[in-house]
Each structure stands twice: as C-alpha cells, then as structure tokens.
Design a protein that fits this description.
heterodimer, A: Rossmann fold, Glutathione S-transferase Yfyf (Class Pi), Chain A, domain 2, 2 domains, 6-stranded antiparallel sheet, B: alpha/beta, Helicase, Ruva Protein, domain 3, Dna Topoisomerase Vi A Subunit, Chain: A, domain 2, 4-stranded parallel sheet, two-stranded antiparallel ribbon, 9 helices, about 45% helix, globular
Chain lengths: ~375, ~200
C-alpha cells in the first residue's frame, strides 16, 4: 500500500490542502510555513493515530478552528509505478481521521468507524524521522522501551500478550504495596511475584534476543549512511534482571518489599529497562554532538524501516527536514536508501539538495509560499 | 423525567451487568406494556430465586438445600476436589462427563486492584475441607487469566504442607488445542502451551 492522496482541513496553518502522491520517493518542497511538515503530520494522524512531535492533537489544529479532518487515499502499487504514474488514480481505501477541539475523535475506513489506527499499522506501517525529535535518544527511557517493544513484537508474536500479563502482575503488586497498611503479608505478595518473575524474564529475554538480531543491521545502516566504521557505535540493552533465574528474581522481589513500599513502586523488573547508544564506552546522550545524535537516530529509524521492508506490508517512511542536516554524500546515500522499496515522503526547502537524476525519478510536490497570516512553522 | 416508580425500575435494571441506562429504559417500557399475567411471573421468579437458592454449605455451588446435588451424590469420588472461580464453571466441567469428583467454588479470583484479597474468597474453607475430608487430589481449574493464575499459585502455597506430607497432589488442567481445530489457525500462546504440555502417544 502507499498513499495516493492526502486531503486535509484545518491542520496547522493550512485550512485546506490536497496533494497527490506517488509510490516511491515524494519530495515535498516549499518555503518555511508552506505546509510541508503538515502533510507528514496528516499522514501520521491518520495512520499512526498521533501527531508527529506531540501527543496532543490540539497542538496541531489550526488555532482559530474547532475541528480538523484528514483524508488519506491508500492504493496498491500498480504496474506503472513510480513517478510516471502521476495521473490521479482512484484509491483502494480511504482512511480518515477527524478531531474536534472538545477532544472527540473519529477514525474511519471507507466511512466505516474504526476503534483505533491498528488496522493501518498492519496495512501500512509508518516510521518517522524528525531531526528535532531526539526524544528517542535524549528523552525518558519509556520511548526506548517502546522501541524495544516494537522490535520484540515483530520477532515474537507472543511478546505483546506476555508484556500485557507482566504489566498486569506489576499493577497488582504495586497496588498491594500502596494499600497494605501494617504488615505486608507474604502469602498475598508471593503469587504476583511468582508471575512477575515468570513473565518478566520472558519479556527481558525476548527484548535481548530482538536487540541481538538488530545490532548488526543497525551498525550496517549507520556505516552505509556515514561511511564511518560503525563498530564503535553500539546498542546496549540494560536490564536490572540480567542473569537472574526465576528463583533469584522472586527472592529479590521478596527482599525488596519493605523498600518498595516506602517508594510505593516495584523497582526490580523489565519495566525499568533501557536501551543505550554507546560509543567508545560512553553514552551518546552525554558525549555526542547534536549532529552525531541525529545521524544515530536516523540510522535507528532506517534500520527498523529496512527490516519492515522484508515484512508483509511495505512501510511508509516520513523524513522531516532531514536534508539540511546532512552533507552532500550522506544526502546521496539517504536517497539511495529510500529506493530500496516502499513509499517515502521527504520535506525540503531547497530542491538543490537533490541531483537532477534523483528529481527525475521522484514525485515533486511544490507547496509554494506560506499561506498569508501564518506565523507557525511547518 | 419518569414517575418515581418507573424510575426505580429503570435504576434497578441498569445495575445489572451489561445493561446500560438506554437498555434499562427499553426493558422498562417493554415490561410496562405487558399484561400482569405476562409480567408478574418474572417478578415471582426473581423473588423465588432469592428466597430459595443459596450456596452449598460445603462447596459454595448454587443449591436449594443445605448441600448441592453434587455434594449429596455419594457415588462421586469423595477424595477429589476441583476448584473453580464461579458456579457457572461447574456446569462447563460437568458437560465434559470427564470428571466424577467434588467441586469447590471460590467466588472469584485474587485481584488486589478489584479489592479481592484471599479473605474475600472461600480459600480458608478449601484448606479445611482438604484436612477434614482427607482429599487426595485438588484440581485447580481457575481461569487462565493473571488473576486465575495468581489464585492457583496461592492455593498451591496454602496446601503445600499436605503435598509435603504426601497425602495430596495438586494438578492444573492442561492448556491445549480445541478439537476439530486447525493448527494453522491456533494462536501462538495456545499452540505453545499445548506443545509444552504434550504427552506420550
């Protein structure tokens, strides 16, 4: 599947915008504020269910409007794929999302209501790179755990269910910690701790295995992108249950009940896992420049995107304003990456970042100058 | 909006599981339209069920006497107890005709978040029965949910000294594939457990 058309209403500073897209590489060009990122935002809102850089939809709704709506036409790549197939085609499915300022949300597939964006994740998984969004590297571990989860879920179909079971046992134990006044009764804690040990080790094991299978592709991607030896850049899985067996895990939980009760929170377990990007033994969060962190993030996104390319549904790659960040060699290599399959939407202020040959083989969508009276970025 | 009497019926109906205010209204209007001969049997059935039906003194199954039919049936294996969460689970197991022992209904499963601790369930009574009835086997047939699993583990701990003394074995039904099912369509969890619990042919 790929996006053949996006029509949006009241998103950021565009009250109305409609663009036709092709399979393969699409270059969205325009002045600052012309609505390039807005097009990516629209794709993300419908297919992922959240905006690009925020979790609050109101942040991307046009300031003076009380609703926003996005319609995305999805099509199967036809025989005449590529930029030549620019003629408007009828979409196979129309995916739409509408939000009101009071927080109401309506997702539909060909007009039929949908619970969530889950259906689109199967049909057209999305991976996004936005240079401002270094949260995966610099932010809280929660995002990195989510990243690990998406790697592990693709590898082990049992993973999401086991993670849910782990989370349930964790909430039950945390609740016992918070509510048990006076003595902590062993017999009440033990069943939940046994289940935590059982499922926690499975979760940690699957995460470790998924990451072990991903370290190579990630290093390769980073090397290809930078032409630097990638072996100095390492992805390291950190868990406080490493090397434990179930019995040790249970004993450690039992021993930490008093301390955990003081803090009303379970401290042992994979819900505290983290993923570190290390270079020469140092955490990239602390020692790398912005540019290096961005390149590492781009390699993370591309490596995962490339793994999706081998899957049943070709992924959609959204690259926001990445070209200005890269030198000319890296730009060439990035464009070559996107040729490996699937649809890519890349925003840029300047077509000179692309070679003539690259422009010829891509669909260029010119969004022109910014609409009048718009002070926002995107 | 409604007269107090009508509103009371709507309120009472909407307390039932799966019945929201809209459905409660619809049911109320339906009942209002019925003739007394058609509507009153429901009221009588409700009164009767609450007056007559109670929990079995021994196993907490539903019964109209002190002991339920199963507990009164001396032809059943008196040394085996199958532990279930709810009385409805007994009906499911009885339908299999594979089990001829006794039951013990817990009345739910452990879930601190829902305010269900061990004291809210008939767990102490289970230990008493195992001691007094010289039970040889306890089959823990709680649901394969986290709450059901935690309850099973709790029971194992509570009864461990009988097991250590060699007088009791505790078992749990195997998780397996549905009969007539196709391997291709089995979910990974079920198939994985069925493989882990495989037996000799």
């Amino acid at each position: 599947m790929f996006i053949s058309r996006i029509k949006l209403t009241n998103l950021r500073c565009r009250h109305e915008l409609e663009v036709e897209l092709a399979d393969g590489l699409n270059i969205l060009v325009g002045a600052n504020g012309a609505g390039k990122t807005t097009v990516l935002e629209a794709a993300s809102l419908v297919l992922v269910g959240t905006p690009l850089r925020t979790t609050n939809v109101k942040d991307v709704m046009s300031r003076d409007r009380d609703h926003l709506r996005v319609e995305v036409g999805l099509a199967e790549p036809g025989a005449a794929g590529g930029a030549e197939a620019a003629a408007p085609r009828s979409a196979a499915i129309v995916a739409a999302a509408a939000y009101s300022r009071d927080g109401e949300r309506r997702l539909t597939a060909d007009g039929a209501p949908l619970e969530d964006a889950g259906r689109w994740k199967e049909l057209l998984p999305v991976r996004t790179f936005a240079p401002d969004d270094l949260r995966l590297i610099k932010g809280s571990p929660r995002r990195r755990r989510e990243y690990l989860d998406s790697l592990a879920a693709r590898r082990s179909p049992e993973y999401p269910g086991t993670l849910r079971r782990y989370d349930e046992a964790l909430s039950q134990r945390n609740f016992l910690l918070r509510t048990s006044r006076g003595g902590l009764r062993d017999a009440e804690f033990e069943p939940w701790e046994a289940l935590l040990a059982q499922t926690g080790l499975l979760v940690a094991g699957w995460r470790a295995a998924a990451l072990a299978g991903f370290v190579g592709p990630f290093q390769r991607t980073h090397e290809e992108l930078t032409h630097e030896a990638g072996d100095s850049l390492r992805l390291v899985y950190r868990t406080n249950v490493s090397g434990m067996d179930e019995a040790t895990y249970r004993t450690r939980l039992a021993e930490s009940r008093q301390a955990d009760r003081q803090r009303t929170y379970t401290h042992l377990g994979p819900h505290r896992d983290d993923l570190r990007l290390m270079r020469a033994g140092l955490d990239m969060r602390d020692c790398a420049s912005q540019g290096e962190q961005r390149t590492a993030l781009l390699a993370l996104v591309l490596a995962e995107w490339e793994q999706l390319l081998d899957g049943p549904a070709k992924p959609l790659l959204l690259l926001d304003d990445v070209m200005s960040e890269l030198d000319i060699d890296r730009r060439r290599r990035l464009v070559a990456f996107t040729r490996r399959g699937g649809q890519t939407l890349v925003t840029t202020t300047d077509l000179r970042y692309f070679s003539d040959e690259e422009l010829e083989r891509s669909r260029v969508v010119d969004l022109g100058p910014a609409p009048a009276g718009c002070g926002c970025d995107g | 909006m409604f007269s107090p009497t009508v509103q009371k019926l709507v309120d009472e109906l909407s307390k039932l599981p799966g019945i929201g205010p809209k459905t409660a209204q619809r049911l109320t209007f339906h009942l209002l339209k019925l003739s007394p001969e058609d509507a009153l049997p429901l009221a009588h059935a409700l009164i009767e069920v609450k007056e007559v039906v109670r929990f079995c003194d021994r196993c907490f199954n539903l019964t109209e006497q002190d002991l339920c039919d199963i507990c009164r049936d001396l032809g059943r294996d008196q040394a085996s107890i199958c532990v279930v969460e709810e009385p409805g689970d007994i009906i499911s197991i009885e339908r299999t005709h594979e089990y001829r022992g006794l039951y013990h209904v817990l009345g739910g499963a452990l879930s601190p978040l829902d305010g269900v601790g061990p004291e809210k369930l008939h767990l102490a009574e289970l230990a008493d029965r195992v001691r007094d009835e010289e039970t040889r086997e306890v089959i823990v047939a709680t649901n394969p949910t986290m709450a059901g699993e935690a309850t099973a583990l709790y029971i194992v701990e509570e009864l461990r000294h009988f097991v250590n003394a060699g007088t009791l074995r505790i078992t749990r039904p195997a998780a397996g594939l549905p009969m007539g099912g196709d391997l291709e369509y089995a979910d990974e969890v079920t198939l994985g457990r069925a493989l882990a619990g495989r037996r000799e042919l």
